[in-house]
Amino acid sequence: MSFTIRPATEGDIPFIRKNYTDLVQDEPSVSEAPSPLDIREKVLSSQPQEFINVMRSGTDEIGFIHYRLELESDSKEENVYIQALYIDSLAPRMGLTSIGRTVLNYLFVQHRGIAGAFVSTMHANKALQSVTSRHNVDFRYNAYSQQSGGNADNPMVLTVRSATPADIPFIIKGNQVIDQKSGEIPPNPLNEARLNRDVFHPTHPRAFILIADVDDQPVGFIIYSFCYFSSKGEGLWLSNFYIDPFCRKSGVGKAMANHMKSLHPEASSVFGAVACVNNVARHFFRSLGGKAYTDYFIYGMENDWGKVWGKVE
Description:
By secondary structure, the chain is of the alpha+beta class. It has 9 helices and 10 strands.
């Protein structure tokens, strides 16, 4: 039996309205069903503000996904914000067990260049909750967001832990994203051998990495080490941090920073250097109460320091 996904049309409005109304009645987290006028003005216009894709199996409509695109103010990355997902309860009997993944992948094909997909509520409707949890490698909830209307009875589980060698692929991938954002690709980028030598050394690690997990899936990390200031004593140098785009502004970064400080209560301060163009990192430090010191210069004395840190005098 053939399965297709297509943009909604005028003729789909009764199907969307009926099943959206059922979602609202069954799931208190789903917002009010859009009116026919809303669908025509926001979805079916020549310049749509929102999108609805309808799923068909053979000649029958079996579901739809309602979403919009949002531009992240700090990173300027575009994400898909999923507002509702309806899948007919008979879909599994039709052999459409992978329908959720197919629909989500279709969004990434339809809107090339988007960074990720998320939902703003932790108590999503059952279809969306099921799809997201099964395919959380690519699609995750915007966890612990105060703006998301999260339900305390069904929160997403956020944990912070020390990294293990199993996290190496995630750490390297995230670090590559950071390098690309900074505009400076280092001549000797972070690799598995250096992580094993410097972080996972059994007795003398030179640096430390904390991992943030949402429902047991890694969504962020912090890399840091010890430093010493004659006026302040021992401190922490935050070398790098990464948070998946769909988990930003959700408390993940603050949870990692607080866990780092709790592990080292003797540290007098936390410092880090941020590229001028990295607005995400600058916002992160400010959100933790950090201040930018404009009356100091950063000097490097290694042969390749200028290549790693950007422009020099």
